[in-house]
Amino acid sequence: MGAQPETAVEMPPRGVLGLRPPPPVVIDIFLAFLIIAMTYAPVPGDHYVRPTTLTLVFAGVTIVLLPLRRHFPRTALALAVACFTIVALTGVMSSGLIMAVAIMVFGYVNHSTRRRGILVAVGIVVFVIVLSIPLAIIDGFSPRVVQFALTIAVAVAAGDATRSRRQFIEAITERARRAEETREAEARRRVSEERLRIARDLHDVVAHQIAVISLNAGVATSSVDAAPELAKTSLATIREASRSVLSEIGDLMAMLRSDDDGSATASTAPQHDLGQLDQLITQFTGSGLDITLRCEGDLTRVGSAASTVAYRVIQEALTNAHKHGADHRAHLLVVVEESELRIIVTNPFDAADPDPALPTLPTPNGAGLGLIGVRERVASVRGQVEAGPAPGGWRVAARIPLSKEPLT
């Protein structure tokens, strides 16, 4: 088997610039260095003050919490805010700790809903401002409070954008997966339909002729000594049927080996229809089936699709009558009404004394493959067909709309 084409489902995740994102441990190490750098960074406008031991301890705690934010973002955020609060209560507004809080806010918003993430972020900003009030009363208002609020706002925006991008990728991946499944289901459906079409064509073009050959071979065998002329007639019918089936098998093989999907070949191939009903009756009559035909209405009103289906219905019904019926007789009624074509084929049938040479008999539920094909063909033009025992024999009745196009 050749290599399968890559689908959108199998593509690895990519970053904003089309690059694969670094491993989580690399990101955590970078963020840890960022928290440490912000902790030791001097405050603009003030003389440099080394961070206190308490600040360094809680900065270390927030670094330890970094991996936790991926699986427990709410807990990591709460602990980071607690660390910042404890240090702030000692009179120190640490930039490193507010950076840690911003990182946790990013993780929380990234894994939460937009509404909840914004509400939590606003609450944290308000909380930071409230914590800065005692320091503002003592030392005056510090612009760093605004800087802290903006840092958290940027973290919220970045987390919301990351979550939106992830959800967008998940949505298009899901659509790609469904599209792939739909294409596979459509391919399986087309293969199944093609197999059914081939099976119907094979049955129509081969089974009928093979039945004619089999019946005439039996007639020729039984009459070769007693009625040589009848045997010759049967052998001539066998020869003609053999030529016909070979020609039709050749056409079917050519269609199967063609490069197109078969529709073009099928559309250009000659189709049997009710215009060839007389030849069909003559063929059955020549093989020994006595047919009483009655046509009512104008057959020219029947469209090509309905006419082709009607021909196959009659062919299958007469074939079954010839193979399984009694007395080698059949009655065919074709009625063209205002909006539909009715076909009724009846034949004597002795169910109590079936021919033991027959492999199978048609059953009332239509278990025969031929009747299954007839039902499929009639259904393709929105028609109905019934087959089953009737008083005095077997009856096949089909109703085919005149103005409907085939479903497929």
Automatic annotation (TrEMBL):
The chain crosses the membrane at residues 23-41, 48-66, 78-106, 118-138. SUPFAM superfamilies: ATPase domain of HSP90 chaperone/DNA topoisomerase II/histidine kinase (SSF55874). It holds the Pfam family HATPase_c. Residues 194-260 form the Signal transduction histidine kinase subgroup 3 dimerisation and phosphoacceptor domain. GO terms for cellular component: membrane. This is histidine kinase. Its EC number is 2.7.13.3. It comes from the Bacteria. GO terms for molecular function: ATP binding; phosphorelay sensor kinase activity; protein dimerization activity. It catalyses: ATP + protein L-histidine = ADP + protein N-phospho-L-histidine. Keywords: ATP-binding, Kinase, Membrane, Nucleotide-binding, Phosphoprotein, Transferase, Transmembrane, Transmembrane helix, Two-component regulatory system. Residues 310-403 form the Histidine kinase/HSP90-like ATPase domain.
